[in-house]
Amino acid sequence: MGSLGASGNGGLWGLGPFHDNIHRRRDKKRNKESNPSSSKNAAAGEFSTAASYRFPLKQAATAASLVLTGDTIAQLRQRWLKNKDSVRHSQDLKDIASSLLCEHDWMRALRMTSYGLLLYGPGSYAWYQYLDHCMPKQNAQNLVTKVVLNQIVLGPTVIGIIFAWNNLWQGKLSELPNKYKNDALPTLLTGFRFWIPVSILNFGLVPLQARVAFMSMSSIFWNFYLSSTMSR
């Protein structure tokens, strides 16, 4: 689904909290405390900012690139398994590359990338902004609450949307109920098994400055799994 986790909050299912916004919020709070007379102007500025929506292009582009990377890996793996005997016996690197790339499903890649760009990136950005607004303090209680909410709210929502998006592109909306019935719950449970341990590692072992990179790399594996599930 910067990408996955940042600045002590971490993220599940894809893009996580965005530390730049958190730092800006903290700076504004410090400025208000040091200069109370400026609070009215700051409040007016915040209202104006809230009233004008800006598409989170950076976060959307990051999500799209990570989803595209995961889908590319998934497609390469599928073709490798399909053609592994012929590839193993080939001595020409060009033949191997041609065998793996010539059948690349660009429509599938576009389908997955558009999901990250138009839906997952902006949606998860808004979700984590909302969580940070409701629970700004960095403490254990808020951390656990965010993790739980990610699992029971964001996880099922992401799976429901990506299944619908995939079937809509393929013109198979009539098959969507069966897709939910057969694949939604296994995908959700796999997400629990994947993201909870990753988050524990992220918060417990990874230095703060490396959390965004760690969770971003982790999201590539999750996007690989999602892409493989979509193509069944």
Automatic annotation (TrEMBL):
The chain crosses the membrane at residues 147-165, 185-208. It is a multi-pass membrane protein. The keyword Membrane applies. Pfam families: Mpv17_PMP22. One of its GO terms (cellular component) is membrane. The keyword RNA-binding does not apply. It is found in: Membrane. Keywords: Membrane, Transmembrane, Transmembrane helix. Belongs to the peroxisomal membrane protein PXMP2/4 family. This is Uncharacterized protein. It comes from Erythranthe guttata. The lineage of its organism: Eukaryota, Viridiplantae, Streptophyta, Embryophyta, Tracheophyta.
